[in-house]
Amino acid sequence: MGNFFSSMFDRLWGVNKEMRILILGLDGAGKTTILYRLQIGEVVTTKPTIGFNVETLVYKNLKLNVWDLGGQTSIRPYWRCYYSNTAAVIFVVDSTDKDRMATASKELHMMLQEEELQDAALLVFANKQDQPGALSASEVSKQLSLVELKDRSWSIVASSAIKGEGISEGLDWLIDVVREEQL
Amino acid sequence: MSTHTYKKFEEAQSGVLPDKMTIYQDCLNAFNESPVNSKRCRLLISRLLQLLAQGQTFPCTEATALFFAISKLFQHPNDSLRQVVYLAIKELSTVSDDILMATSSIMKDVQNGSDMIKPNAIRSLTRVLDESTAFSAERLFKSAVVSKHPSISSAALVSSYHLLPIAESTVKRYSNETQEAVGDLKTFPYHDGLSEHYPNSTYIAQYHALGLLCMLKNHDKIALMKLVQHFSSGSTLKNQLAQVQLVKLVGSLLSKDHQMISQLSPLLLGWLSNKYESVQLEAAKLITSLPDRYVSPELFSSAVQALQGLLSVPRATTRFAAVRVLNRISMVAPEKIVVCNPELESLINDSNRNVSTYAITALLKTGTSNNIASLIKTITNFIHEISDDFKIIIIDAVRTMALRFPEEWKSILNFLVNVLKQGEGGFQFKSSIVEALFDLVQFVPQSKELALENLCDFIEDCEYNEILVRILHLLGKEGPGMKTPSLYVRHIYNRVVLENSIVRSAAVVALSKFALVKNDPTFVDSIEILLRRISNDVDDEVRDRATIALEFIESIKSKGESGSSPAESLIQSKFTYDLASLESKLSQYMAAKQEAFKTPFDTSSIARYTEDERKAIDLKRKQEQLFTTVSSGKSKGKSGVSSEADKKNGSYGGPDATELDQDLQATKYAEELALIDEFKPFGPIVNTSKDIALTETEAEFVVTGVKHLFKTHVVLQFHITNTLADVALDNVYVGCTPALGDGESPLTEVISIPADRIKPSETFSSYVAFEKSQEVVTEDLLNTLYFTTRELDASTQEPFDGDEGFQDEYEIDTLPLTAGDYIRGSFVGDFLACFDELPNHEISVYNIRENLSLQEVVDKLITTTSCLTLDNTQFTSTDSNTHTLKLFGKSVLNGARVALVVRLIKSSKGIALKAEARSDDAVLCSDIVNGLI
């Protein structure tokens, strides 16, 4: 009986509708750490992701299907295999890695040109703010030329996955946008 | 949906496959859905797997698309779905690209998944790993191997076998854990009321771990020995297969080093009374397949005893395996298993026909001339109840027996004729009987007449063209020499009247041979009349053959009695070509196209055999085949019956592989030499010896030598292999010094051709040629290898510039030129009569002090004399200390016959050997007895 009611409420709140979210970004940006920070609220030790990790989590009564795809050069070409039905993309940038900002920007803009991602919202995490010498969110935004993005809801949030800062703020924004646009 | 259509895809046997493209589309749609419908996806994957299992394939792009779609199912936590996902990934891993995308997800399951899916995850993990990613999976494998759950541990161990070729070093890093797993008795972790639903653990992980360990330590003899000692003591090994594996490990150790038998025989003895039948069998099989002199008679007889005990166990597979091992022993040493005869006899009526067949063949081998008649009688009653494959095995045993006991030819012939006429059985079976009869005709002259008559009867009612043609050929060959040739003519002409054109053509050829019957002009006339009648046949091949035969007969007649005309040899040829080299020459000729066709095909370079030589080769092949059957039984675990049957069948068609190799090898050498200008004046090669090793096989430079005999020259060809890794050998030649020194030696060196450069792991030939007289010349040649070493640049594999190299020499073994090099094995029907009639006579006595078995000495003698062994004397009896070896051959120079009787006596001091030789050629006669050892 309890099951029955809960599933009724689920339907009322739209929980049974799953939402696909991709976490992308260059290798070593902290994607897997953010994924597990979201799921179990802890920092796990990670090694380079060969392929992907996928977890389902419920956030604010919304069922999220979060895919964390590996960021190594060899794996980036396969990102596109997972674009379809994606509600939002979380792009993670290592704010201390100034040398590869250009690469990150290139990958980001290339990805956003894909047909399948036209309606997806974009959240950028300027990650690793706990590290010394990290660029601020606005600086990262500039480097990634985010202002050039048209017809897309986007936001950039300074974060530290290790300390758990900024993650929920970013996700709150994302959920609001997606709910507004798609439900 | 009706039950009919609903069930359609469910039954594996229904034969109705779902449509490939429908499944493909459905899969893509369903797997990309959100949320995932796990039940539907499972069903779809199972159909996909069914398709793949039936041999359907997808092109690479589609397979990759499927793989990515399936990878999306990782979002669903259902264990059953995950299991099929793993199965699908495993199947697709071979056809689809980009399989590495699943790596992280699988690893996560291996680490954190439920016990249910872990084994599946581990198994598919090996499929997606490559050299670079295997490293990161090491820790996962390590912990899975030591897992307390038997299924997980087994999965990790078995997957490691597959990982070995990809990343051996990774697997090596957890060999300690593997060793731990061998000793660990793992049970399923269900201790509550549910446990009755789970099987008791069989400790199969022990087997898997031991197998992996053996592979890891394959090259380390001492480590393997430690393994054996560690696990054979006590009762750590509970699993049956693991114990069998340990026996096999001992077997492979022994095959590398026979000396270890003294250490290991107590172990083997213990295994013979193991509680598992399979362990007993494996141990007995191992003991009985080791070379004789390493196994003490006591150990051997306990092995036979163990097998004897296994013959009467209720389990048919065990009986079968035991009788198969006994059958194998019976081929080489029948006297050793005579004790089992009572059991074997009772197995003749075993309800399992496979068992009874082997029992009978073993009995046929152990049989003595006394009980052959009764055995044959038993078989006659029995043979109709078994399948063709087994019939063939039995016929073959009878055939070898016929060669062993020629004096029993009457009952054997009767038996063969009876089964032949029964009319049942397929082509292969009939053909094997006919083959056996052919052997009788060829090698047991007394039986010739009766056998031929029976074959005549048989062809009156035979449905197989191939067999008919062969019999007709035999009749044509043998018939003219018999007492009443007219009898055969009648039978052959009947074929012309009644059969199809293939058989008619063969009959015409056979018939024409009867025209050569001497001293009966009326007979020849009637043949002519018959042939003339045939030349109106409807079929042109038949007409052609008849016409040409008539033409030949005419030309022979016109020459009168004055001597042999070429036409005679065309009708009844005196020799046959070596078919293997004829074939290779002809195909070369054809491949050269227009150019070569200007000159006619040259047959002179192809080896020709006379009737006797052909027989010698046949007999030798049959004797050797006995060996190969024995050894193949030893090494292969194939389903015994079919492989044995295959072997037998194979032998009817063509010569067996080794023989063929040797013939081809000789032809190949001949071609190589023909290309070298320096040797052109020497003329054609008279004889080529076998390849003789002149160094240890693990030496830095491996050298083997071949002796090519020309009429007045000898050419030594040395094959030199450079086994060094980064050194090239320049200007390599072999210095040959005759042992007698200058002036005295009958050999004078004329040419030496070096090999220019031998790079690492390459083989090149260098030649030395000597001039000699036309006579038989024997001499020992002392050899030294001379060369210049030059270090190679690792990047270019070329020598460094300016490196002058370093001159060096290397002593290699002596290559003797012996009397045996002038001899080719030959066959003679009645050895003793022939021996007595040869004019020259020589005797010589030797004492061998080395510790060799009689069989080894006999083998050595056969090789050095290159003669053919007759009267089945190539096998020594293991019971007795004496042996008589009969050898026969012909000189390649002048065809002089050589017959040798060698008597050997083994005593505690060594082996005494008395050789008595008789020959047409006095020099050869003395040379061969004096150069035996």
TrEMBL record, chain A:
One biological process term in Gene Ontology: response to endoplasmic reticulum stress
Primary location recorded for the protein, binned into one broad class: Golgi
Gene Ontology molecular-function annotations: GTP binding; GTPase activity; metal ion binding
List of residues binding Mg(2+): T32, T49
Binding site for GTP: G25, L26, D27, G28, A29, G30, K31, T32, G71, N127, K128, Q129, D130
Localization terms from the record: Golgi apparatus
GO cellular component: cytosol; phagophore assembly site; trans-Golgi network
Record bears the keyword Nucleotide-binding: yes
InterPro entries membership: P-loop_NTPase, Small_GTP-bd, Small_GTPase_ARF, Small_GTPase_ARF/SAR
Keywords recorded for this protein, A-Z: ER-Golgi transport, Golgi apparatus, GTP-binding, Lipoprotein, Magnesium, Metal-binding, Myristate, Nucleotide-binding, Protein transport, Transport
One Pfam family of this chain: Arf
NCBIfam families: small_GTP
Similarity section: Belongs to the small GTPase superfamily. Arf family.
Protein name, entry field: LALA0S09e02674g1_1
Automatic annotation (TrEMBL), chain B:
Organism: Lachancea lanzarotensis
Gene Ontology terms describing biological process: endoplasmic reticulum to Golgi vesicle-mediated transport; intra-Golgi vesicle-mediated transport; intracellular protein transport; protein secretion; retrograde vesicle-mediated transport, Golgi to endoplasmic reticulum
InterPro entries in UniProt: ARM-like, ARM-type_fold, Clathrin/coatomer_adapt-like_N, Clathrin_app_Ig-like_sf, Coatomer/calthrin_app_sub_C, Coatomer_g_Cpla, Coatomer_gsu, Coatomer_gsu_app_Ig-like_dom
GO molecular function, one term: structural molecule activity
Family: Belongs to the COPG family.
Membrane topology: Peripheral membrane protein
Residue ranges crossing the lipid bilayer per the database entry: none
Domain Coatomer gamma subunit appendage Ig-like subdomain as annotated: residue spans: 668-817
Composition bias, Low complexity: 630-643
GO cellular component terms listed in the entry, alphabetical order: COPI vesicle coat; endoplasmic reticulum; endoplasmic reticulum-Golgi intermediate compartment; Golgi membrane
Function per UniProt: The coatomer is a cytosolic protein complex that binds to dilysine motifs and reversibly associates with Golgi non-clathrin-coated vesicles, which further mediate biosynthetic protein transport from the ER, via the Golgi up to the trans Golgi network. Coatomer complex is required for budding from Golgi membranes, and is essential for the retrograde Golgi-to-ER transport of dilysine-tagged proteins.
Coatomer subunit gamma C-terminal domain mapped to chain residues: 820-931
UniProt protein name: Coatomer subunit gamma
Keyword annotations of the record: Cytoplasm, Cytoplasmic vesicle, ER-Golgi transport, Golgi apparatus, Membrane, Protein transport, Repeat, Transport
Repeat keyword on record: yes
Localization per Swiss-Prot or TrEMBL: Cytoplasm; Golgi apparatus membrane; Cytoplasmic vesicle, COPI-coated vesicle membrane
Residue ranges occupied by any Clathrin/coatomer adaptor adaptin-like N-terminal domain in the UniProt entry: 20-555
Main location: cytoplasm
Segments for region (Disordered): 629-659
Pfam families, sorted: Adaptin_N, Coatomer_g_Cpla, COP-gamma_platf
Source superkingdom: Eukaryota
